[in-house]
Amino acid sequence: MILNSLSGRFLALTVLFVLLAEVLIFVPAVARFREDWLLERLEKAQIASLSLLTTDAQIDADLERELLANAGVFNVVLRRDAVRQLVLSSPIPGPVEQTYDLRDSTAWTLVRDAMQVMMRPGNGVIRVIGNPVREAGLLIEITTETAPLRRALIDYGLRTLLMSAMIAAATAVLLFLATQRLILVPIARVVRHMTAYAAAPEDARSVILPTAKVRELRAAEEALQTLQTQLTGALRQRERLAQLGSAVAKISHDLRNILTTAQLFADRIEDSADPAVARAAPKLVASITRAINLCETTLAFGKAEEPPPRLAPVALRGLVADVAEGEGLGPGGPITALVDVAPGLVLQADAEQLMRVLSNLVRNARQAIEATGKPGTVEIGAGEDDAEWWIRIGDTGPGLPPKALENLFAAFQGGVRKGGTGLGLAIAAELVRGHGGRLELVRSDAEGSEFLITLPKQTGLDTE
């Protein structure tokens, strides 16, 4: 039901309060209309009486009836001095039911009398006393019937209520639209971001960007942005620490073996003058170097915190050309780059992070081809459709070993080269996920390997 929503309840309360305000205006307005109606009858009666006061002769009975009919009264009594004088008169259809003195009526008295006239059906005779206009006497008194007054009050009340209802409806709609725009839409936007963030905390695009103009909503969006940023960093750090912890046993074992080998060679250097020492020294240095590199790489991965991507237009062809040149894939070398990227293709991404991803994939492809000792080609293609951009990186290498395929994007487990840690693909996949995209292996066989990067064009969060 609409009343179960915030907007529906706000609309209902707005209509209720506006109608209440209109009622508080309506009641005094009806009381004032009744007073004006009676004062108008007194004024018409006074004008009618002037025809008699200006002549000493007796006026015709038909003229007297016409004057009283035009004034809407049965008789007129005028007190000019101490004497009360019946100026005009006609037969009264019934006894006088009520007398109203407008000279000293209070606001409450006027409201009460107006409500009594509206609620009392039928027709009756009332006496009305007031002050003559332009001080033409001490008082003027008339008798009249209530039916015309009641009809006028009901007609005026209905028109006032209709106008009040129209004003209430227009006010409610305007307030509803204003509240919808200023409050409910920003709240819905915050809810969408919270839902999207809960579904994919790794997607940096789901971190809200404060845009609200209302100070309180702006503060809520900024607090949510801080919370999401901190939580995303904590989740990434936790994931990396978990991966680091699972690798500690393997690292300890490998490091112990490496250092044991180094220790044996060191003992031979210290205790023997054998000429073989000259041949053993490079092995010792290589063993220690591998141990140092392994430790440094592990510690760097455990401490690294990738910032959210700063999306901006990126000309992909120029970026791909820089990556190919950096990896030495020139036209005259044994390994060449085949680039199939339209010159005008521009996508929204973090240029630095995208270059790191492409460099890692192109480097892996180059090293896979170099391991065969044969010439080859690294193919880089890109395109787009209505929903996303895509980038393909393929090579003519020997394909990935089965062991690497099992945990391709897992740190310390998906290494492709001998002695590799597998951090390159893990970090590349993380950077692509930060853009809301995917990095996946399309194929890997004897003819080579092919990776696919997809980046979405829209987040779907800020559309209204």
From TrEMBL:
Keywords noted in UniProt: Coiled coil, Kinase, Membrane, Phosphoprotein, Transferase, Transmembrane, Transmembrane helix, Two-component regulatory system
Protein name: histidine kinase
InterPro entries (UniProt xref): HATPase_C_sf, HATPase_dom, His_kinase_dom, HisK_dim/P_dom, HisK_dim/P_sf, Sensor_HK_Regulatory, Sig_transdc_His_kin-like_C
PANTHER family from the UniProt entry: SENSOR HISTIDINE KINASE YXDK, TWO-COMPONENT HISTIDINE KINASE
Molecular function GO terms recorded: kinase activity
Stored PROSITE patterns: HIS_KIN
Domain Histidine kinase: 250-459
Coiled-coil region: 217-244
CDD domains: HATPase
Catalysed conversion reaction: ATP + protein L-histidine = ADP + protein N-phospho-L-histidine
Entry EC number(s): 2.7.13.3
Domain of life of the source: Bacteria
Gene3D superfamilies attached to this UniProt entry: 1.10.287.130, Histidine kinase-like ATPase, C-terminal domain
Keyword presence, Transferase: yes
Transmembrane segments: 6-31, 160-179
